[in-house]
Design a protein that fits this description.
Layout lengths: L9 H6 L4 H8 L5 H12 L5 E6 L4 H13 L4 E5 L9 H4 L7 E5 L2 H10 L3 E5 L16 E5 L8 H4 L4 E3 L12 H12 L9 H15 L3 H10 L4
Parallel strand pairs: 1-2, 1-5, 2-3, 4-5, 4-6
């Protein structure tokens, strides 16, 4: 796996230098109750049982649009296979959603496949000729949805690791959809009816992240508190 520091926004990286419990203890009283309630309710719906693998993305706008769809459907972990170039996402399209997603990068496809198999995930490739329909995805307990490069699709080594393929049924004359549109349709079905299932550790980490982003001069408050002498 590529070091997470290459994918974590600088602001989030700074937030995560502090223990979540410390952030919650110091910053929670400074955030309006309705804001706290909304963050907790949203985080409680987020998913680790559905994850997405984006194989060798090229267009920053498409990459950003896929991330935005993932955030909209509560997908917490997004994996990127970097084959020839580093992953870029257009900030104008993500519009801040990257602050709530955990993005993980891989250079070695074999390592990525081993990771998902070890975690009990079933890899399903998005493909125009797939044998599964979108609604079938909701029945897969732990799903890793694989979407391909905008031009070349999913590479052979990753495609062979996929147990099934899923299609987006279409009635028109077009032969395919933009990767971000396909991902959004498939994720809508894959997440339908699933209760939130993040671990308690991840829920607290995200809640602390939200508090940090909500409080003006949060880092200054935390560092001053850490430096204050014990009484």
């Amino acid at each position: 796996m590529i070091p997470s520091s290459q994918f974590v926004p600088a602001l989030i990286a700074r937030a995560e230098t502090f223990e979540p419990a410390r952030i919650i203890s110091l910053l929670e009283p400074l955030v309006l109750e309705r804001r706290r309630d909304r963050m907790r309710a949203t985080i409680d719906q987020r998913l680790s049982s559905v994850q997405i693998i984006f194989d060798a993305p090229h267009d920053p706008h498409n990459g950003a649009a896929v991330m935005r769809s993932c955030e909209a459907f509560g997908i917490q972990f997004v994996h990127v296979i970097e084959r020839k170039e580093s992953f870029l996402a257009s900030p104008a399209v993500t519009r801040g959603c990257e602050k709530w997603i955990d993005l993980r990068g891989w250079k070695n496809v074999h390592d990525a496949i081993l990771h998902f198999h070890a975690e009990g995930f079933e890899l399903v490739a998005a493909h125009p000729d797939g044998e599964l329909c979108p609604q079938d995805l909701a029945a897969i307990p732990r799903l890793a949805l694989v979407v391909g490069n905008e031009r070349d699709g999913i590479a052979d080594d990753l495609s062979r690791a996929c147990k099934h393929r899923v299609r987006v049924p279409m009635r028109g004359f077009v032969e395919s959809l933009n990767v971000s549109v396909s991902a959004a349709i498939l994720l809508a079905h894959a997440t339908s009816g699933r209760p939130g299932d993040l671990s308690e550790t991840d829920r607290l980490r995200l809640y602390a992240r939200g508090l940090y982003l909500s409080v003006v001069k949060a880092e200054e408050i935390l560092r001053v508190a850490d430096e204050a002498p014990l009484r």
